[in-house]
């Protein structure tokens, strides 16, 4: 049984990725701290005839990351890891605290490193031609004055992707990243609530200002991201590694 792990699978982008990989034939190990979200996504997958394993874990802890990888690998052959779990803090640069920095970099970057490390060790031991995909962001491509820790973490994910791709190419493990733009999720809505409060406008106005910058003219859906992840996990992407693919409607073209 070929297993794909999706972290942060309880809602939003993680949910869409989990559902897509289940349709692609993977047995999907769902990891999240959100018990109710896990149960709902597991039920969706199973009702469609797929296989799912719910793993409740605080992925900000490296020990919990290791336990998640081990539990999924015991369930079947670990073939794919999707690092999606993360958080966002929208604050002016001068107001970011040490606790803000540690909380965001811990989950958005440290967790990604140790998940890649643990999954790669298992894939190498099992001789699996694995696929590792991490969700970065176009925020990692440039500066963000009100999201400095987030932008730093997502830039770090792109760098980790390249380092891991070089480290594991000899084992036929590919490592890539997907960089979303403005995605229709609860996280995006919270970002624009915070920005609206700072700017003295409505959240709808804040979001509209962002959407007008998208060449394709619409907000991104979680399924747009899931399609890119599905490709990187497929045989069609066997000769692609170390890449960070923008999936953002044309907002970022570098």
Task: Please explain how this structure is put together.
The chain is α/β, with parallel strands linked by helices and 254 residues long. The protein is 48% helix and 16% strand. The chain has helices spanning 12-23, 35-47, 62-75, 98-126, 148-168, 186-199, 203-211, 222-232, and strands spanning 2-7, 27-32, 52-56, 77-83, 131-135, 174-180, 244-247. Strands 3-2-1-4-5-6-7 form a seven-stranded parallel sheet, with helices on both faces. Helix 3 (62-75) packs parallel to helix 4 (98-126), helix 4 packs parallel to helix 5 and helix 6 (186-199) crosses helix 7 (203-211). The chain is globular, with a radius of gyration of 17 Å. The mean pLDDT is 95.
Q: What global shape is seen?
A: globular
Task: Characterize the biggest β-sheet.
Answer: 7 strands, parallel
- Major β-sheet strand ordering: 3-2-1-4-5-6-7
- Please trace the helix and strand order, writing H or E for each element: EHEHEHEHEHEHHHE
End-to-end Cα distance: 38 Å
Structural class: alpha/beta
Poorly predicted sequence stretches spanning 5 or more consecutive residues: none
Mean pLDDT figure: 95
- Helical run tally: 8
Number of strands: 7
How large is the radius of gyration?
A: 17 Å
Percent range of helical residues: 40-55%
Q: How large is the share of residues in beta strands?
A: 15-25%
